[in-house]
Recover the amino acids of this structure.
């Protein structure tokens, strides 16, 4: 007798054109304990696609006059922020949003409730001592800093800001680390499984601590400090959102509405593009970046770039995500307004690449709608 095969892991994909949703597909079991089938309307932790949503919120605050992309971000933090190797160079939100501020992840970025972000940034591993502003290196730690600036500028907690500025205006029930999602949405959470079959995340959606507990194990949010504790809500990757609602979020980038034309242009034009020596492309994965937005297959990119998972040499905007066995993507063609929002789970950390720097699993999801 052989052991029974494990249930298929969750995956979903939704096509859209502008604000109009098209084909949607879902497969696998969202929760193996109950056998609940995955639906395209079930929320999942989409990892770094979260950064795009945070950038939308930042640009709304810029439009409201609460934030300035090119001001010294210390103005909003309430504490000094400098790369120790370049102490006279201010750090700006434009740099943080485009991963060109010199921030690095070597010191970590998933911080407990009682961590002080200001003290954390005093560690050498949080900075690139060899390169000043303008050199690209993707770093998750940029986004707790961005969230801290949002909090300092408004006096509101990050998770509530995201609900007010992005989710409620779009009429989507999404959230960061479950705190502002409805009970009905939390009950439909997609559990993330690793390639081994082990649970990686969200088998206790909304029932546990909404972030990394304090060093003493406590999770009393009264201990949360604005502009100091913002890593707690995982602004770099903690958004829970369905594939359907992720497509609705993507439609924001298509035409002015939630954001002005000027803000959309600032987000989606290159704040950095790879020239072969001005950043770490991570094997050709990153070759263009706007403000919280990845730019794929830009014309004239170096031959070392392998950032075209669609295989058609068309420029696209959006963001990829990777964490806890999940790979996700939100991509749209700014010319045709056609886009796709998807995730696939139980992908191994060393999963094989496809024809591009993306994994074969991601390329297969993209190809499923062709």
């Amino acid at each position: 007798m052989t052991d029974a095969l494990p249930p298929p892991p969750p995956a979903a994909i939704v096509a859209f054109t502008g604000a109009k949703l098209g084909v949607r597909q879902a497969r696998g079991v969202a929760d193996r304990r109950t056998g609940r089938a995955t639906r395209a309307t079930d929320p999942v932790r989409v990892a770094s696609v979260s950064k795009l949503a945070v950038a939308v919120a930042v640009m709304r605050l810029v439009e409201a006059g609460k934030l300035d992309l090119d001001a010294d971000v210390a103005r909003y933090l309430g504490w000094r922020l400098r790369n120790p190797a370049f102490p006279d160079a201010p750090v700006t939100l434009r740099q943080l949003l485009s991963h060109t501020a010199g921030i690095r992840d070597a010191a970590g970025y998933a911080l407990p409730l009682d961590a002080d972000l200001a003290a954390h940034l005093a560690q050498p591993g949080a900075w690139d001592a060899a390169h000043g502003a303008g050199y690209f290196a993707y770093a998750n730690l940029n986004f707790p800093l961005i969230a801290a600036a949002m909090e300092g500028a408004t006096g509101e907690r990050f998770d509530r800001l995201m609900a007010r500025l992005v989710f409620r205006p779009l009429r989507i029930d999404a959230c960061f680390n479950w705190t502002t999602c409805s009970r009905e949405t939390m009950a439909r959470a997609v559990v993330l499984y690793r390639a081994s079959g082990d649970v990686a995340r969200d088998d206790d959606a909304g029932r546990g601590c909404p972030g990394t507990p304090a060093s003493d194990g406590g999770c009393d949010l009264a201990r949360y400090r604005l502009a100091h504790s913002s890593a707690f809500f995982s602004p770099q990757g903690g958004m829970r959102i369905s594939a359907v609602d992720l497509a609705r979020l993507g439609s924001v980038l298509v035409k002015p509405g939630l954001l002005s034309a000027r803000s959309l242009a600032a987000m989606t034009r290159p704040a950095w593009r790879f020239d072969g020596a001005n950043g770490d492309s991570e094997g050709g994965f990153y070759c263009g970046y706007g403000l919280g937005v990845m730019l794929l297959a830009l014309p004239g990119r170096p031959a070392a770039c392998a950032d075209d998972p669609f295989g058609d040499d068309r420029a696209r905007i959006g963001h990829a995500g990777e964490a806890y066995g999940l790979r996700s993507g939100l991509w749209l063609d700014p010319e045709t307004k056609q886009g796709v929002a998807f995730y696939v789970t139980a992908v191994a950390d060393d999963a094989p690449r496809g024809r591009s720097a993306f994994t074969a699993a991601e390329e297969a999801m993209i190809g499923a709608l062709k």
